[in-house]
Please model this.
Amino acid sequence: MMQRVRAALHGALLVACALSATVAAPARAEKADREKPINFSAEQPAEVDFEKRIGTLKGNVVITQGTMTIRADRIDFKQNPDNSLSATATGNPVSFRQKKDDSDEYYEGFAQRAVYDGQKQLLELFDRALLKQGSDEIRSNYVSYNSATGIFKAEGRPDAPGIEGPGDRVRGVFQPRSESPLSPKGDSAAKDATAKDAKAAARDKAPASKSAPPLRLTPDASLGPAPARK
Model:
């Protein structure tokens, strides 16, 4: 009976830890964006329903909300109940840009088609997709990025008909971290080089030691008896 109670308590503790980890997950996109108004502009007549908060824009379309900017040839969009933006955009290419939370960095996405869900903070890029953050980048025909978790996914897919892309491969570049212990910078690198030169000079000036006795090679017994000399 006691073992069952302990097992039940252990299971409840694991569930509680999982829930707390989910709640504590930091948001990576600019959290204040959804508190800002949605601004949109286009070159062609727009179809907008102010009651439903939805619209279709065509011709050099630009939509902004806070630090987020979407540029495309066409964008179908809506304002969600939490005031966040969701949109499906097509263009050659579509560009998406948003500031990371508590950082001066932006992440950027480029593709022939993009789908953004503001409630899930999920960006999906289709065909000739490129996701960039600083000098790091990932390329594929499909890339998704969850700005709430900072995790991206990429899949190799065949090129769309009439679109020359990266094919069914995923390519990416991660630049070295500036704080990497394998890449000493500035004074520390100079000090290391000076110390190495001093040690080498000391070895060169040291007096020669007495010659060591010659080494004797001992045959391995597992090889069998040594052959007799002739």
Remarks:
- The chain has two helices and ten strands.
